[in-house]
Design goal:
It comes from Azospirillum oleiclasticum. By secondary structure, this protein is α/β, with parallel strands linked by helices. The protein is built from 15 helices and nine strands. The chain folds into two domains: about 180 residues, 3-Layer(aba) Sandwich (D-Maltodextrin-Binding Protein, domain 2); about 130 residues, D-Maltodextrin-Binding Protein, domain 2 (3-Layer(aba) Sandwich), CATH 3.40.190.170. Helix 1 crosses helix 4 and helix 3 runs antiparallel to helix 12.
């Protein structure tokens, strides 16, 4: 795609989004000097969304109303990749996004989406609040025009949702499984034995319903709130991905803010990420009970065969040294 094509595409996307932003919010916008519009694929019922509401309230309070934060659940502003492009052009937009997608700009971020990287929220939080991670943040800002506000938005461990029992990687042979399109996700699902089928989250339910795909891998809150229990029969708790995400927006927009607003945004994002992540932790047991009540069979399996099958993904994608550094961090 040529630069001119990309430019016109970004302009077209920005125009579409601008219309959505203006609808019903004009009076609020006029009262504020700055605005930030945050896009997420998740629903308002997701624990992570509660964290976004806390972020909005905190920022608006600390800036005394000079900044308004608007939340757009259900990918109302478009696909993550399109919102990221708007941000790179300087729009006041941000997206809740995983490291796999950011690896297209700064490779190091991709390791965050690697298989069995860390255990639970506390483990992965060590990585995304480390000096090493801040080096990646600066590199993303300087080379890709993107600004991380915080990256401690834990959505839970991801498991397999299928229509047949799965106990070992060999059971996934021939299974077409939806996963995000980033290389680290694709290679992991392939290593586990399935055929990766990248598509947007909004397409998953109808794709399962129509047999376009056979399975999906996802975290409990997203699975339940998207009613995937209606189109799948089994959840196999592989915990292969520890899904950590962040709020990422425009470096140009961020740099143009008053100096006192910048730490407000980053500190508020970190605090709200903790609220969202602890809320996710607290929700998991009840979600499993609710899914079981809907007729889904939830199975604990020995994850060692899956760990062994995916161990080579880091080397294949050039993350061997970085993975070793993170392992050392986890051991402290």
């Amino acid at each position: 795609m040529s630069f001119m094509t990309r430019s016109w595409r970004a302009v077209a996307i920005s125009a579409t989004v601008a219309g959505a932003m203006l609808a019903g919010t004009a009076s609020v916008a006029l009262a504020a000097d700055y605005s930030l519009n945050i896009n997420t694929a998740l629903t308002t019922q997701d624990p992570l969304y509660k964290g976004l509401e806390a972020f909005k309230a905190d920022v608006e309070k600390q800036t005394k109303g000079r900044m308004v934060v608007r939340l757009f659940p259900g990918s109302q502003l478009g696909k993550d990749e399109d919102v990221i492009e708007q941000a790179r052009y300087g729009a006041g937009v941000a997206v809740v996004v995983d490291g796999g997608r950011l690896a297209n700009y700064v490779k190091e971020f991709g390791v965050l989406s690697g298989p069995y990287l860390a255990s639970g929220y506390d483990g992965v939080r060590k990585v995304v609040t480390s000096p090493m991670f801040e080096d990646w943040v600066k590199k993303l800002h300087d080379t890709a025009g993107l600004q991380v506000l915080s990256f401690n938005w834990w959505q839970g461990e991801r498991h397999l949702l299928t229509n047949k029992p799965i106990t070992k990687p060999a059971d996934l042979s021939g299974v077409r499984m939806r996963t995000p399109g980033a290389p680290v996700w694709m290679e992991t699902i392939r290593a586990m034995g399935a055929t990766p089928a990248p598509m947007g989250w909004a397409e998953v339910y109808p794709a399962l319903q129509q047999g376009v795909i056979d399975a999906v891998e996802a975290q409990h809150p997203a699975s339940y709130n998207s009613r995937l229990y209606e189109v799948t029969k089994y959840v196999t708790k592989t915990g292969h991905f520890n899904l950590i995400t962040g709020i990422v927006g425009s470096a140009k927009w961020f740099d143009g803010l008053p100096a006192e607003f910048k730490p407000i945004l980053r500190n508020a994002a970190l605090a709200a990420g903790d609220i969202a992540s602890r809320g996710t932790e607290a929700s998991l047991a009840q979600i499993e009970k609710d899914m079981a009540a809907k007729g889904v069979t939830i199975t604990e399996v020995d994850t060692k065969p899956f760990r062994d099958a995916t161990a080579g993904v880091y080397a294949k994608l050039g993350y061997t040294e970085l993975k070793a550094q993170i392992d050392g961090m986890m051991a402290k």
